[in-house]
Specification:
The protein is α/β, with parallel strands linked by helices and 487 residues long. It has helices at 15-23, 68-82, 98-110, 127-132, 152-173, 183-191, 213-221, 267-282, 298-309, 327-341, 361-375, 381-394, 432-445, and strands at residues 4-9, 41-47, 50-56, 85-91, 114-119, 142-143, 201-207, 239-245, 248-254, 285-291, 313-319, 350-352, 407-414, 419-424, 454-459, 478-479, 485-486. The longest helix has 22 residues, at 152-173. The termini are far apart.
């Protein structure tokens, strides 16, 4: 990406709508009520032949205290300092407000490149507001309609000279891509892919509201990139941040806190939870963050079960460990509860951390890497078939209704998560208990703790392939001139 563009302005002027149009996806939540966006969201934008990074920001408000709005404003001002170009957006239908004048003065001092855009300028209703925008002293305003896509050509014209200015820097900062691999390297990569800058490891942090997800990610990033505070439910969007953590390129998703479905009534919260669920589906490793004071609530179990059903590698992290007094007894209770309440994730890492102090971050990193490696593990067919013979000798499959089940052979069909196919007779007669027996021993014998394992029973036709075909007539004997008989 050649440069970074931050979209700033008052709440509800259409910043997230323009962000979604530039990235070509509905990444940012959009609603009629003001103040939906709270965190900084980055995306890869495309406008004609321009490629750049766009940042959606929280609406600027005239507060400077430590309230939620004050912290949102400081985060937005930080985005202004980070960005190469600021797109200052005003509402053409409302006109210029005193707040717009204050923020225009701030942008003049903090940003070298400011583009002024009057949004919602479609039709006659927005003409007066677009003309009034000249009074901000930021040059000629662009008339836009982010919702309908009007004015994109004018935005391109303003960005083009700035793109040329930053082109050289982009070339030197571009990540390594299109790496050539030998056949040996390719085989190794297929077994356990190594995260790269082009394809970083995808990690989602999920949990109930106020478990400390954003604080944990800020600790990993080493800076306050996400809005945090004592209020529950601050995060609304699923925000992704890139970080090379201990030498491993990662894209880490912060998600909105997930409450019980019955308590989720507002449309906006439903959108937030839906965004978090989508992040789980795209993740490779899911960190389920619990609160040490009230761990393994019913909602925690549902979230962990969701990650397992989606087939993601799971790490369970217990936060706020710094406030615990009797840690040994608490840890013993946690492990017992984990084994009892989440048997489908038996053996998954259980890590204690303090997002506030940074304690346990190295253990969390090791657990994520371990879960990722197991999630990508491949077992050879020869090993599986030797193992299957041993399992059948120790515990033969049952014979329901007098029909003996023969397990012929086994192979691994996929990884991420590991999936195995057993070819057998009467696959529909294999009891669920016998499949669980095989899965549990797969975990134990091939060292695959915690990761979801998929096992499919497939039928194999053992009938004679020639059965039912007409018998070929005997070949006629032909007499040759030399007197010998040949077929």
């Amino acid at each position: 990406m050649s440069f970074t563009l931050a979209i700033v302005g008052r709440p509800n002027v259409g910043k997230s709508t323009l962000f979604n149009r530039l990235v070509g996806q509905r990444l940012a939540l959009v609603d009629d009520q003001p103040g939906v966006t709270r965190d900084l969201r980055e995306g890869a934008a495309r406008l004609a032949d321009l490629r750049f990074t766009v940042i959606d920001t929280a609406g600027l408000e005239e507060v400077t205290d430590d309230s939620l709005q004050g912290r949102m404003r400081r985060l937005t001002e930080r985005a202004v300092d980070m960005a190469d170009v600021c797109l200052f957006m005003v509402d053409a239908r409302v006109g210029i407000t005193p707040s717009d004048l204050v923020f225009a003065d701030i942008l003049r001092k903090r940003s070298a490149n400011v583009i002024l855009a009057a949004n919602k300028a479609e039709g006659k209703a927005g003409e007066a507001g677009a003309l009034e925008a000249y009074s901000l002293g930021l040059g000629e305003p662009i008339s836009l309609s982010a919702e309908h896509g009007e004015g994109m050509n004018d935005l391109y014209t303003m960005l083009m000279p700035l793109a040329d200015k930053f082109a050289e820097r982009a070339e030197s900062d571009a990540p390594e891509t299109d790496v050539d691999l030998s056949e040996e390297d390719a085989e190794e990569t297929e077994a356990v892919p190594v995260p790269t800058n082009a394809k970083p490891m995808q990690v989602a942090v999920v949990g109930r509201p106020n478990a400390g997800k954003s604080t944990l990610i800020n600790q990993i990033m080493g800076e306050d990139r996400l809005l945090t505070g004592p209020e529950a439910g601050i995060t609304r969007d699923a925000i992704s941040l890139r970080k090379e953590w201990n030498g491993v390129p990662m894209r880490i998703f912060d998600t909105a806190g997930m409450r019980k479905k019955a308590k989720v009534q507002e449309k906006l919260e439903k959108l937030s939870v839906s965004d978090g669920l989508r992040a789980v589906k795209f993740a490779e490793v899911v960190v389920v963050l619990l609160d040490a004071e009230i761990p393994f609530e019913q909602q925690d179990l549902r979230i962990a079960d969701l990650a397992e059903r989606e087939g993601r590698a799971v790490v369970v992290a217990v936060n706020k460990w710094d406030v615990e007094d009797d840690r040994q007894a608490k840890l013993k209770d946690l492990k017992e509860s984990f084994e009892r309440l989440l048997p489908q994730l038996r053996g998954a890492p259980l890590i204690t951390v303090s997002a506030k102090t940074g304690r346990g971050m190295d253990r969390l990193h090791e657990a994520i890497m371990r879960a990722y490696e197991v999630w990508n593990r491949r077992v050879t067919t020869a090993q599986l078939n030797r193992w299957l013979s041993g399992m059948m000798e120790a515990h033969p499959p049952p014979a329901p209704q007098g029909k003996r089940i023969k397990l012929r052979y086994m192979t691994q069909a996929k990884t991420r998560p590991p999936g195995f196919v057993v070819m057998c007779s009467h696959p529909d007669k294999v009891p669920e208990s016998y499949s669980r027996y095989l899965v549990n021993n797969l975990r134990l014998d091939f060292d695959m703790p915690g990761t979801p394992i998929r096992l499919w029973m497939r039928g194999q036709n053992d009938a004679n392939p020639y059965k039912g075909r007409k018998k070929a007539p005997p070949s006629k004997l032909r007499k040759h001139t030399d007197g010998r008989r040949r077929d």
